[in-house]
Design goal:
about 375 residues; mainly beta
């Protein structure tokens, strides 16, 4: 509803958390369009680190930023205290390489891994320097390998085993041991493009791509163990794993449809809905409220979806965001627009309780050459 909408007015200012539990806490200029970001697991709960990747120029930067949150408690006209947060992010360093940064992941406090449109996979170590009074942190490239004959499309690190998975437009999956850098390739995993890869467990991968395919892989095998098809699209563009149930996933498509699946039980989505007008680029479960999904897309909208809503649909697209009809049926999934931007939103990175309890801290990658910071405070009720 319109009361839940935060419009982009171009100002950098703190915003009080509103009815849905979401609020904008900051916007940080980056000088390049941002394609992706990843939180570095925090050592110090008072601050955190974010790696951002850029795209659109001949050469683009992978940057490390120190993120600091400031909280104030001003009183309203009735004397009631309101919590207002403001997030700033200081660029500490980075590396510039040819091509676009397609995706970045960080499952360790000192390592980040990136995938590039040139087909390369790069491993970066966070290095601390003690020059001057304040120590600084920079990115050092410790490995670079061309994993794909065409553009790489995704990268994910399994936090327990340290196994890195990359996918590409060439349909290959490359698995690399983070510790030894030994690798093996699943050649021609599909006949089309793979767009996203995520680990469901230490030995199970999920990939999505052309043909609406959702494939589940045993990392020790050469063929998928299960295959499901989304009947609503020819290209899946986003993938998220449920934080507690590895067989529950969410996908987004090039035509803006978001779907929720149980890949153990079904070959088609359990529910699907038209989430965006245009490609859907980012989907994530909320860590503090995993029955809810965040989605963002080319239309500049950031939506939250409640999949515990009482009108959960079957596997059909039953609700268009902008139907414009007075007698339109009640949406089958509870939707709130929590932000509207003038340009495309390319991805989401969420860290829970980086600065406090039961709070989701969200970094949104923007084509407007900035990173948008938001906060979701989960209700205790």
């Amino acid at each position: 509803s319109s009361s839940d909408l935060i419009r982009d007015d171009g100002e950098l200012r703190a915003v009080t958390i509103h009815a849905t539990g979401f609020g904008v806490t900051g916007k940080v200029a980056t000088q390049q369009k941002i394609s992706c970001s990843a939180w570095i697991p925090a050592k110090d709960m008072s601050e955190s680190m974010l790696v951002t990747g850029a795209w659109g120029d001949q050469s683009n930067e992978l940057s490390i930023r120190k993120v600091v949150k400031e909280t104030s408690y001003p009183s309203d006209e009735e004397g009631m205290a309101k919590t207002t947060s403001h997030t700033t992010a200081l660029r500490l360093g980075g590396i510039v390489c040819k091509g676009d940064v397609v995706e970045v992941d960080a499952q360790h406090s000192s390592i980040a891994v990136s995938a590039w449109s040139t087909g390369h996979m790069r491993v970066h170590q966070l290095e601390e320097h003690a020059d001057g009074k304040d120590p600084s942190i920079d990115l050092k490239e410790v490995a670079c390998r061309k994993d794909h004959t065409t553009a790489a499309s995704s990268v994910h690190v399994q936090k327990d085993s340290g196994l890195i998975a990359t996918t590409g437009e060439d349909g290959r999956i490359v698995l690399t041991d983070l510790h030894t850098l030994n690798f093996r390739v699943i050649h021609h995993a599909t006949s089309g493009t793979l767009t996203r890869v995520r680990f469901a467990s230490s030995s199970v991968l999920v990939t999505v791509g052309t043909g609406g395919r959702v494939d589940q892989w045993d990392t020790r095998a050469k063929d998928p163990t299960t295959t499901a098809i989304d009947p609503h699209t020819s290209l899946l563009t986003a993938l998220a794993m449920h934080p507690a149930r590895p067989t529950t996933i969410a996908t987004g498509s090039a035509c803006g449809v978001v779907s929720v699946w149980d890949i153990r039980m079904s070959k088609i989505p359990q529910s699907s809905t038209q989430a965006h007008e245009g490609p859907l680029w980012g989907v994530e479960f909320l860590p503090s409220k995993p029955a809810c999904l965040l989605t963002c897309g080319e239309d500049g909208l950031l939506n939250v979806w409640d999949f515990n809503a009482r009108h959960a649909p079957g596997s059909s697209v039953t609700y268009k965001v902008n139907s414009g009809e007075a007698d339109s049926p009640e949406p089958p999934l509870m939707r709130h627009i929590v932000y509207q931007h003038g340009l495309g939103l390319n991805g989401l990175s969420i860290q829970n309780s980086a600065f406090g309890l039961n709070t989701d801290h969200i970094a949104v990658s923007c084509d407007s050459e900035e990173v948008l910071f938001m906060e979701h405070v989960s209700s205790p009720y």
